[in-house]
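Weekly structure sync - notes
Attendees: PM, LS, DV (DV joined late)
Agenda: review two folding runs queued last week.

Item 1: First target. Sequence and structure tokens pasted below for the record.
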Amino acid sequence: MTDAPGSVVTDEILEDCLQAVQRSAEQGRPATAADVTAFARIPASTAEAALRELRVRGLLDSEAGGLALSDEGRRQAAAVIRRHRLSERLLTDVLGLPWDRVHDEAMRLEHSLTPEAESRLRSLLNDPETCPHGSPIPGSGGAAQPRWRLDSVPAGTRVRIEQIAEEEAVLLRYLASLGLLPKTPLTVEEVAPFGGPLLVQVGGSRYAIGRDVAAKILVRGDAEAGPRRRRHRRRGR
């Protein structure tokens, strides 16, 4: 534990900050101090103190342009993320909590899992490869699959949802109401120009999805259906 002026940095806060930096890296971008503050839900002054402590411990890469983890930092972050995503699986698969509520619960539970408890939990859950939102669980042994943001998929392409990149409760409830869940196939029918929405078909329904929402949905090609290149007439209002 480190005391900074006006801030108390606990081991739990440090783990949350490690997780925040690594999650940004998973999304292909360097983390910012604002990302850390928002994810860990701590004051900016506490985040600054935590980041200083991570540098002192050699867990941040001092030569990186932005916030990035060192090799040891990535190893420790992977351990935290593994406990977090296993906790989410426990909460959904065993305890039956809805997927929009498990993130906050897992943020508390992840810090209390011992290595023995984690091992038993993995066995109980049959060593799952992803969390309920489709994010890979580090160390699960599952083969990495290429994933693309839905907002980058061209019209006429059939894909399958693999992951929801952000676990905001409001977003998850909205996506669930449309049936946009991991492992769900969909077709991008139209892409409006000038940053407009995507028209997607999910089962027998069509929805207009804003680019900001589509950017948080990671997909890959649907191997069973393959790409489809069909032209659709624009539906009038």
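Item 2: Second target, run right after the first with the same settings.
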Amino acid sequence: MADSKEYEINFFTPKSPFAKDNTKIIAWIVIIWALAVFGFHFLMKAIEKPTPEPAYITYESVWENVKSNTATDIEKKDLAKVYLTLLGKYIELRDNPVLKKALTSTIYDILPAEEKMAFVEATQVFSGNLDDFELLLNAVKKFPEGIKQNIIDALGLSNDNGFNNLLANVIPYGLLPFDGAPLDKENMDTIPVLMDKYLIHFQSGLTDTKFLGFPFHYFYTSVFLLVLFCGLCWYYCVAIDKIMDKHGMEKGEV
């Protein structure tokens, strides 16, 4: 073993001319790939801007009046629809007690006086255990259709079979047992946090521009980067053949 040759291969300290050329081409491929992947995300982050949904604009226009208890029934209806939109879009909010209490309280406020007590009694079918979806489903089945229709009429959702009809179907899932008490300050302070989190999105020209029918950022990450990866693999195969020819190596050699 004393006279045997030792071969040490280290990517970061190549010694032979072939290893140096091979390392160089691999390094350039890695740099190109890293710039294409991470550089694009850094670019998106650098040029993004907060863009509110229409529902957020509605919320923002009525919230100060709601906080000061001077909101009209129309403003309360608009706010209730915003709550329903959130509950319908984000399943994780189905067990958010603040949002559900805000919706229940708002519905109570806009119902006619003669319907308020029946509404309070009807909400008692809902369990306080928000983690058990089966209990919620059972409560929804027990919720009186007449009370539900009263709520739909009060919110102005009864004459629309489109989006408003979808909101109407969400109503029972957004209720909690209710005693008629208004939201306390702590709950009121939590509502803006929820609105900012779920109704403001960060967008830019990269997300708003359409390419082949897709948002550009989606096409870039899901299609172009895959094509680029395949292209870099092909380029390495071609380049390594040329490097081997350059150094007089047979293609069958290791």
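Discussion on item 2: The chain has a mean pLDDT of 86.
Action: LS to circulate a short write-up before next sync.
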